[in-house]
# Entry
Amino acid sequence: MDLATSYMGLPLRNPLVASPSPLSYTLDGARRLADSGVGAMVLYSLFEEQLREEAAHDAWLVDGPANSFGEAMDYLPAIARVDAGPRPYLRLLEAAAAAADVPVIGSINGTTPEGWTEYARSMQDAGAAAIELNIYYLPGDPRTTGREVEQRHVDVLHHVKDAVTVPVAVKLSPYISSIGELARRLDDAGADALVLFNRFLQPDIDPEQLAISSRVTLSSPNDGRLPRTWIALLRGRIRASLAATTGVDGPADVAKYLLAGADVVMTTSALLRHGTQYAGALLDGLSSWMDRKGFGTVDQLRGMLAVPSDADPTAYERTGYVAAMREANARSHGPW
Amino acid sequence: MSVTIDGNEAAASVAYRLSELCSIYPITPSSPMAELADEWSSQRRPNVWGSVPTVVEMQSEGGAAGALHGALQGGTLATTFTASQGLLLMVPNMYKIAGELTAAVMHVAARSLAAQGLSIFGDHSDVMATRQTGYALLASASVQEAHDLALVAHAATLRTRVPFVHFFDGFRTSHELNTVDLLADDDLRALVPEELVRAHRARSLSPERPFIRGTAQNPDVYFQARETVNPFYARVPEVVQEMMDRFGERTGRRYGLVDYSGHPEAERVLVIMGSGGETARETVAFLAAQGERVGVAQVRMYRPFPASALVQALPDTVGRVAVLDRTKEPGSLGEPLFLDVLAALSESHADGERSMPTVIGGRYGLSSKEFSPGMVAGVLEELTRERPKRRFTIGINDDVSHTSLPYDETLDIEPEQTVRAVFFGLGSDGTVGANKDTIKILGAEAGLQAQGYFVYDSKKSGSQTVSHLRFGPQPIRAPYLVSQASFVGCHQFGLLERSEVLERAAPGATLLLNCHHSAERVWDVMSRPVQEQILAKRIELWVIDAGRIARAAGLAGRTNTVLQACFFAISGVLERGQAIERIKTQIAKTYGRRGDEVVQRNQQAVDHALEGLHRVQLPEQVTSAQEPAPLVPDSAPEFVRTVTATMMAGRGDLLPVGALPVDGTYPSGTTRYEKRNISDLVAEWDPDLCIQCGNCSFVCPHSVIRSRYYHADRLDDAPEDFRSALLNAPGLPDTRYTLQVYVEDCTGCGLCVEACPVSAGGEPVHRAINLADREPALAAERENIEFFEELPLADRSRVDFGTVRGTQFLEPLFEFSGACAGCGETPYLKVLSQLFGDRLTVANATGCSSIYGGNLPTTPWTTDADGRGPAWSNSLFEDNAEFGLGLRLAADQHTELARRRLGELREQLGAELVDAILDAPQLRESELREQRARLVELERRLDGLAGPAVDDLRSVLDHLVRRSVWIVGGDGWAFDIGSGGLDHVLASGYNVNVLVLDTEVYSNTGGQMSKATPLGAVAKFAAAGKTMPTKDLAMQAISMANVYVARVAMGADPQQTLRAMREAEAYDGPSLVIAYSHCIAHGYDMRDGLDQQYRAVASGHWPLIRYDPEVRAEGGNPFLLDSPRPRMPLGDYRKGELRFRALATADAVEADRLLGLAQQAADLRWRTYEEMATRGAQRFPADTRKDQ
# Structure
């Protein structure tokens, strides 16, 4: 069975990619991911804002008590006055890229133009095979227009593409009025891949504690429907590679994404839920399904169920929608 | 090259570059020299010959001197940095090093010695105690000299083989920033050629050419051998002068053994040494310019005493000489410099070389007491009197022995071109840091010289700072505080009421006031005296709300850069645009390593600083009738109202000798009179939510949360806002409970909030105790506290001492200390005072706990309603265990005497009473109360008797109540400097209790490594991460078999803490309680201190244990493991603390390696403990005190 795949021009041994997660916080974790059989891994995201906050907090810890008591001008050695900045991340990236036999992709969540570009450049220097832009942005200000939100994506991509030569992927949120149009604009701006979709860590409310709860919930297979729809629609309509993320729990979910047209399928929830080694089980399951269905290569099945590039996507969607409704009505006898 | 540095750096720069080894121990004010050496060594910076010096931190100065001696005998160029008590600990080795004619230099930031009280400040008491050791003594008077004479000392010692102490005044020179010309490596090499280094090396011990050095000598030769060195000493003055001359030729800066300046035909002359010489020289120049025939001889080399240089330095016209000593030798004919000068002049006179002038001697400047031009003039004035005082003091008012001379404190001799500025701020607002930057900015400007000196108070929370800055075209030789400032920055509105603020302003000065009041409104909120001074001095007033601008820039509370920009803008010392640019560059330099964010926030604050700066239009007349509130209430004791309050007001300099206790004895419990109001946010109780668990009160480091219960009827007279709840306890109906917060003493640390188990939701989560604004509640809470204090205290014999809930009702006898907000040590001391306070004696090692526990003006150990409370004393750092044992032995002796006399008087006093007293168990509180009642009766019966035995018994009667002796100190004491004594005292078998407040680092002196510092943590002297594991002090003590041992962490298990402290106290033998104390030196928000304690235990970093020999005696396993098996990796605990994280930043591989080793060590220790916890009693050594 040949699972070989290409993603943003990078040859991968298979289409399963480990997406950013705590599993890649350490070199050991990154090694375990590579050993589990994935085709590539995206390291956890480097959050510029968090780094900046940490630097300011550490400075407060060091400077706060300094110069206020005659016997101690400060309380920590000079080494504690040094801001780590992105260095620990870059060191991990460098070590992981050297240790892993699969491409290691760096992920950035920036807040300033300099943050995006400098981190991207440093990641490239540290050996990142590609950069993923994790534009995790909740436009909470009610005055922000949709166009501004979209333009931000395009601007960030422009900045980073100007700064690096390795491929650049853009991870998108689904909460965009016209994802297709934005996808096309990003494609035009040189995006090497689109990653669909980012999951916001939506806070919950704990009614017992009467408090906001920020516990992360893992995705479930149903969450894959939306990205699959868009991948099916974008397949063949843009040049950039398409990466599916969210909602992978079993081999069937991987297969569905590939059928919809994804170049690669990313997962974190499954690996967190079942352990890193579960990547092997996903790949085995994919192979046996392909075997059962008579596919010899991934290319043979990729995009089989995508919206044909010559079809009218709106009409296609409408048809699919009406058909799905009919089927649902027939089953549930609901008030449709 | 011209740089602006302090005296410590100036000396260390030379010492480091001319040494191969620095053997040190931290002590104020010399620690920064050692820390700089360590920093440079860790950066692999070489000395002038290409080797990187080794810096080794020893367990004490005695140890540092021993290692120094060995290193010198081994042929290295070795040095040390020390002061005060540390220098005293080196004295034995100094005799040896000198006796063996060993070339060596030690650099001393000269400091007072502990006598009637400890003082960290500067004088010559310490160096004068070494004048007989055989060391040469070289005195520097300024920052530049500390740099230059350091080189002269190193150059001279190698030529003469006589070791040198190079000293300069602690704080005044060691901590003064001044612009100096830095010596290049070539300058150093030019005076210290390598042949001399090799000659030094050739004198070392070597098995290749063996000899014996350090023999024991007999009466036949010791004396003669002692005289062999004379020629070496005879050469020293000549060699030192030669080095000074060669130095002068090279650098243009010329020095003499004794330098005279002043009128060439002076009649009156001062002789002085150290920084005071600078003041004297400048004042004499001022007076001579007015025609006065005065001069000053500044002594730079004190040992060997340069008699002929001194005699030659004085003009023949001199008829009157006043010698000023910065030390005191009670009982002597005079202080040492005076006696030496007197001897030199009289011998010269006897030899017919010159006429004999009148010579008088006096003391000045002890403990950094100001020495100003007015005082110099005052002493010179005294010399004009027909019969000047032979012995005098200057700078104080001695109303007891009448030694003091009058002087004009307003004499101003400073050149007009020198700009003078003072800034009043808080330690936490960054004022000093910004002013240090200002000094560096100005010092770097072509043609400008700058000086900065900083005064700190002794509080560790809410501390106030005063920055004294000067700058101008001429070198600044003014080692005294600024008194006539043309610019005054008052960075906290509340400080304006301090009289010093406006007193230091010159007429027409500019005052920059940081406050949230607008320019239109600020005048109306000032008190009458402030308004009067502003108008009388025609002060130009500017206001800014720097707090608002800083907050907007993300720098809440750090107003320094905003105010720095305003200073430059108003003062006009630099052109405004240029100044802003310089500030920003300096910010990038200062904060660059802390990351872009920090730099940007500070630069943004500068950009917006001037937006809110406004000049205030002042009225013609005083409009306020508001008088400043009295510092202490009228109800305070007289001593507090007169003496303590004067110190609190910052006017302690005005107190006459007669106002102060003669023997260092001060009243207990004075912090209660110092309402500092240092936090805008204070704890606020929600009675409706509270479950009355007592956790908040238990963990409060400043004892500001108190609980009482009382009958509901008492509320009839309660103030309107007084809060209460129904007491949550069965069997006490109609009983109310109140948790009172002492809002004026609260530091807003938030530990109570974190300790509260109740959550009512919300963001941030609302608890039964929360932080709220102080100001709106202040007036009502004052009334509430007054009412609360009238409520009855719980009967101690009915309180459950075994629970946190119970102990909240025990009155703390340790309150409102100046410890850091959120301190991890003080909660243990508070509990100690609650449990045993009325019969507690505390021997306190020097360190944080002796500073917040015993630093004037006010002290926290206090008394109960009966006037009983902890008796507290501090001896030294190194001897605390022994000191405590002495207190125990004294108590035992007197208890024994009391019991004996009681037995002798049994029939007269009544057998029943006497037997009851002698047989009283005195373990439970009820038993103690009964014993006290018996003693009242005993006293009554004694009143009817007479005779020596009766008098004897009366004098020791108190000892019939069991005394609780506690030896308290930090890990620096217990693990390092006091380790030998602690070991001995624990092995003595006597009933002492030791409480180690373990912060795993020297906290008081700024975070130096101790043997308690964990493997992998960074600390000063372990900048690359400590590579040795922590010493297991608990296991050491357990190995002694009959020591009660506990390791506790109240944030993890407060019940276990309570249990351990009570068991330790009840145990009739030595006991050791090691208490995990979170600390600002760990590098995290102190509010999370309890969480970190929990993690320390949960990760196996700090297993909770108890070892109770009593259990062994009863056939049980004495080793109890009180914490569950570790349930998180060590890394999860460590990631919260900068002391661990910092290493990962600098060297991730090493950090991982050390973490791995630390985890292994923790695992191994846990397995050992687990195994011990499952052993049978017979596998532990028997308690030898018991019959087996």
